[in-house]
Amino acid sequence: MPKEQENSLQSQAYQYIRQKIATCEYAPNQMLSESQLRDELGISRTPVREAVSRLVQEGLLTVFPKRGIVVSGISIGDVHKIFEVRSLLEPYTLRTYHNNISLEEMKEFSDSFHNHALPCEDTCLQDFYQLDDAFHALIMRSLENDYLQELSARIQTQNFRLRILSGKTIDSRIRDTMIEHAQIADACLNGEWEQAATAMEIHLIHSRNSALSMLLKQSSIAGIL
Amino acid sequence: MPKEQENSLQSQAYQYIRQKIATCEYAPNQMLSESQLRDELGISRTPVREAVSRLVQEGLLTVFPKRGIVVSGISIGDVHKIFEVRSLLEPYTLRTYHNNISLEEMKEFSDSFHNHALPCEDTCLQDFYQLDDAFHALIMRSLENDYLQELSARIQTQNFRLRILSGKTIDSRIRDTMIEHAQIADACLNGEWEQAATAMEIHLIHSRNSALSMLLKQSSIAGIL
DNA sequence: ATAGAACATTATGTATACAAGTTGTACATA
DNA sequence: TATGTACAACTTGTATACATAATGTTCTAT
Question: How far apart are CA A60 and CA A70, in angstroms?
């Protein structure tokens, strides 16, 4: 029987670089080079190049021949694209694949959204982000179509980067997110899937607007983006 | 100013192999090897490996370490996945991006659908396929979102392969396709975009069912798929 | 001081050498 | 004959050497 191993150096390099990009440790528009990555990972150029090639295809890197490698930026237009895809996929998933969603897990999320206190400081803020991601991931995990699943994974990475670039979320948006998530989760628990999908659509519009305004404020401070 | 060249050996190899897969000259489940591709292309392993890596990511190839490379198959489940994505993207594109669609070109397609005679033999059948592809491509080209555009491109390749594997389309389905295309095109020309989108949804269901039955018949003849 | 050419540096693109695992075959052995 | 073992012939994974192009620097000439 065939087995596809994924502990190769190429795969390790891919995971490593991808993580650095996702967390913006490799910042948008930052220049990289194969030799730098090679030294950092302690391996040869070949697996590094293969990892870079994969990330280029995912849109996270761009290679300029003989010039270098640059981490893809996230612009206002990208925010629209990211949320357009989310708005297409996430309500669709609720409407079409809700039978695959674990109601037990959904119940736990519902409780968290109802009971969660306002985040205090950095640690709590990270908890909030993680809760947010896990909630949407729970829903998207029910998607059975590989093509859409893969697209969703790409978007989740971009969304992760976007949040880091946007800066600290304001408390009011956190509170609203909790409320909107609770509405979605409760609709799911009641089997009101169409209602859940509609609530998701509204939630994503609000999230997008919040991200846009935060990114605009951030970029006006930083000068350019 | 940065320029991304795409005339590299790696890119040529990618185009070449991808074409061979799309036309099923490299048949589904066929085994390949780097050395074979290297000889066939007359280049070294490195650009071949990079091309293969890209195609693995696109789902057209699978590499089994130390064992070889296999061309991805298309199963009944894949047909459902392909048409699920099409059913999600194409009506959405009509509803959302119709302002980007060239009505002049749409008019030409409409005329073709109304006037096109039934295909006679192989050459005419190829014309029909090309017309079909071009029509859907015209619509999908209006999509502005890179993520969705790329997904659509992947799906178009799979659809191309699927048609080859399915065997010769029966005349009645060709006639129906012409009619359904004409309805979509005319609705577009009348600015009835919601109607066009609905007609597209129906058309895709019919196309999927036709593809499924043809593939079933084909696979029952061929034994396995 | 400034402009331009030669050059050193560094980048990726490509080719090749070597490492390591898988598979099938031939052969020895019971 | 059947079976297991050693080995030869593949495969891809990884490292490295070389080719080529872009860039910044330095030195020279005006």
Answer: 9
Q: Is A70 helix (H, G, I), strand (E, B) or coil?
A: strand
Pick out chain B residues at pLDDT < 50.
1-2, 224-225
How many other C-beta atoms are found inside a 10 Å radius of the C-beta of residue A81? 20
Residue A54: which of B49, B57, B62 has the nearest Cβ?
A: B57
Q: Are residues A14 and A109 in the same domain?
A: no
Q: Is the domain of B50 the same as that of B80?
A: no
Mean pLDDT of A109-113: 91
Closest approach of B4 to chain A, Cα-based (Å): 6
Q: Are B51 and B93 within one domain?
A: no
Q: Which of these three, A71, A97, A112, is where a domain ends? A: A71
Distance from the Cα of A65 to chain B's closest Cα (Å) equals 7
Residue B117 confidence (pLDDT): 64
Token pair 């194969």 is at which residue? A34
Select from A144, A142, A148 the least CA-distant residue to A193.
A142
- How far does B84 lie from chain A, in Å, by closest CA? 8
Q: What is the pLDDT of residue A96?
A: 97
Contact A47, A40 (CB under 8 A): no
Together in a domain, A80 and A58 = no
Which residue has 């300029």 as its token pair? A64
Indicate the residue type of B202. I
The beta-carbon neighbor of A85 closest among B62, B67, B145 is: B145
Contacts of A62 in chain B (CB under 8 A): 4
CB contact under 8 A, A88 and B92: yes
> From the CA atom positions of chain A, what is the Rg in Å?
19
**Count: domains in chain A:** 2
What tokens does B141 get? 């080209």
Q: Which residue of chain A has the CA closest to B145?
A: A81
A44, A71, A98 - which closes a domain: A71
- H/E stretch holding A68: strand A68-71
B119-134 pLDDT per residue, tens: 566 567 888 899 999 9
For residue A8, say whether its CB is under 7 Å from any atom of strand C: no
A182 in the same domain as A102: yes
Determine contact, residues B94/B185, Cβ cutoff 8 Å. Answer: no
A164-204 pLDDT, tens digit each: 999 888 888 988 999 999 999 999 999 999 999 999 999 99
- Identify nearest nucleotide to residue B68 by CA to C1′ distance: D11
Whether CB of A34 is under 7 Å from strand C: the answer is: yes
> Across chain A, what does the average pLDDT equal?
91
Domain interval for residue A192: 76-224
Q: Would you give the end-to-end CA distance of chain A in angstroms?
A: 49
Over residues A9-32, the pLDDT tens digits come to 999 999 999 999 999 999 999 999
